[in-house]
Amino acid sequence: MHTLILGAGYSGLRIGRQALAHGAVCGTRREQGGLDEVQQWGLTPCQLNGRISSQLREQLAKTTHLISSVAPAREAPLNDPMDTLIASLTRKDLPSLRWLGYLSTIGVYGDHNGAWIDEQTPCISTQPRSLMRREAELAWQQSGTQLNVPVSILRLSGIYGPGRNAVEDAIKGRARMLIKPGQVFNRIHVDDLAQATLKAAMLEHDGVLNITDDLPAPPQVVIRYAHELAGRNPPNAVDFATADISPMARSFYSENKRVRNALSKRQLDLHYRYPTYKSALAAIWNSLK
């Protein structure tokens, strides 16, 4: 395998680290600081900042598995910066390519009033960012058709892991506990995300999969559990209806669903290392002690 990760950030770096066991890995970032971080993780850094450099063209020519971890912009214009790049490439640019992977989000499903959903559930979100995500999914699938390679669309739930988790928030006193009755969220540990992406790449999977945990839960339950682990008192509850939060944060709470992951387990023979927030946060706490 020669893996190219477009946008080797929090998730991309961990995918790259696991992919190193199977061959060369290149990760792109825009700025020098990001490139330095990519190199520190043992990956080959390559700058991608609006154009295809000669270095990136060399990497594309060797790439067998290409993954995009780049999200569409969150403010207008809500474009996916990778769409134009991939659409401009042909088989001459990617002679070795065998598979494309796009990291998307369960946000495309929209609001289902807390009901259980799976990959067959219609995508009904009206949020601009989720509509753009759906457009990006379709664009990546179209690129796969044009390049004659399979495409995995991996729909991720809320990503957490080292440095980004409720336990460290509890320790640092930065948690905020919003209460919205009936609200639940799914989550995914970044190491499980990386494992799933690498399995999809190695199997050259084609299709849509939900990559998420087994236990959707109200956010306040997770916060309280994290504080219990850390031996801290949880923050005071704040009524979501009257909370002073950003429009972006409020929009996340406007969609409520429970997401099934059974298809990912079957098609990838995937065994989630952290199937619930409880096992993951306990492991994070033990690593910090």
- Radius of gyration over C-alpha positions, nearest whole angstrom: 19 Å
Strand order of the largest sheet: 3-2-1-4-5-7-11
CATH superfamily: NAD(P)-binding Rossmann-like Domain
SSE string: EHEHEHEHEEHEEHEEHEHEHEHH
What structural category characterises the helix and strand content?
A: alpha/beta
Q: What is the level 1 CATH name?
A: Alpha Beta
Q: Total domains, how many?
A: 1
**Shape label:** globular
Q: What share of the residues does DSSP label as strand, in percent?
A: 15-25%
Q: Main beta sheet, described? A: 7 strands, parallel
Mean pLDDT over the full residue set: 94
In percent, how helical is the residue content?
25-40%
Task: Please name the CATH topology.
Answer: Rossmann fold
First-residue to last-residue Cα separation: 37 Å
Query: In terms of per-residue confidence, which ranges show pLDDT below 50 for 5 or more consecutive residues?
Result: none
Strands, total number: 13
Can you tell me the CATH architecture? 3-Layer(aba) Sandwich
Number of helices: 11
